[in-house]
Amino acid sequence: MILVIDVGNTNITFGVFRGEKLVTSFRMTTGAERTSDEFGMTMLGMLAMKEVDKDSLEGVMIASVVPKLMHALVNAILKYLGKRPYIVGPGIKTGIKIVTDNPREIGPDLIVGAVAGYELYGGPVLVIDFGTATTYIAVNEKGEFFTGVVSPGIRISAKALWQDTAKLPEIEIKKPASILAKETISSMQAGLIYGQIGQTKYIINEMKRESGLTNMKVVATGGLGRIISEEVDEIDIYDPNLVLRGLQILYEKNRKTKPQIGEFADTDKPE
C-alpha cells in the first residue's frame, strides 16, 4: 500500500491505495501550524482508526501548494512512517509535457490534475478543480498541458461577501430553491452558486472554441464540484478523488527512482 497526500490551501487530504484501489481517505485542516511531531502523531492516529498498519506502507507521494508546511510534514513522514516521500515538482516523471510560457510556474496541484485527467480519461481533456481557487487546465491529445485558467473559488467569493460588507451574514454554501430569491441568505446563495454555474459554462465553451478542441472531455473534481457538476451539462464526469488518483499514478511512474526531499528534511534517515 502507499500513502498519498494532497496539501491544499484549505485541507490536507490523505489517501491510502492498494494498487489502483483507494482503500481509505481522511483529512485535516491546513490552517493550523503544526510541528513534525504533531503531524506524525495525527497521521498515526488516523491511520490506526482506518485500520491501516503503518508498516504496510511501501511509500509516500506528496503534492503541496503550501510550502511553509512542508518541512514539518516531510520530517513527520521520515520520523513516524520511516519513509522518504516523493514530492511533486522538478525532477518528477509525469508522462505529460508542459508547453505553457513558464512551465516552472505551474503548481503541483495542477500537474497532478493534468496527469490524472489525461491518464484516466484520455486527451483532449479539460480538468476543473473546484477548490480554494477554481482551476481549469487543458491537456491535448498528445499529452501536452497547454493552458490553464484560475478564478476565485466559491468559498473565497463567499468570504469576501461576509467579511468585506457590513451587514451580510456568514452563510451555508448551497444551491437555493430558486434563483428568484426573496431574502438575504438565499440571495447570497443564488449569487454564489448560479454565478459559478454561469462562469463554468462560459469558460468551458470559450476554452473549447479558442483551442478548437470541441471534443474535449470535461472532468470536474473538488469539494463543491458535485453541486456545480449537477447543473452544468458541459461537465461529462465528476470524480471526487481525481487528485488522489493522480498522486497514485505519479507514484507508480516514479517508484523506481530515489525520492529527492532536499531542503525539506533535517535528515536523510528516519530517527
Q: So, CATH architecture of the largest domain?
A: 2-Layer Sandwich
Number of strands: 11
Summarize the amount of helix as a percent range.
Answer: 25-40%
CATH topology of the largest domain: Nucleotidyltransferase, domain 5
CATH superfamily of the largest domain: ATPase, nucleotide binding domain
Number of spatially distinct domains = 2
Q: What is the beta-strand fraction?
A: 15-25%
Structural class designation = alpha/beta
Average pLDDT, all residues: 93
Number of helices: 7
Element string (H = helix, E = strand): EEEHEHEEHEEEHHEHEH
* Main sheet characteristics: 6 strands, mixed
Shape: globular
Sheet with the most strands: spatial strand order: 6-9-8-7-10-11
Q: Under the CATH scheme, which class of the largest domain?
A: Alpha Beta
Concise account of the structure shown:
With 271 residues, the protein is of the alpha/beta class. Helices cover 35% and strands 23% of the residues.
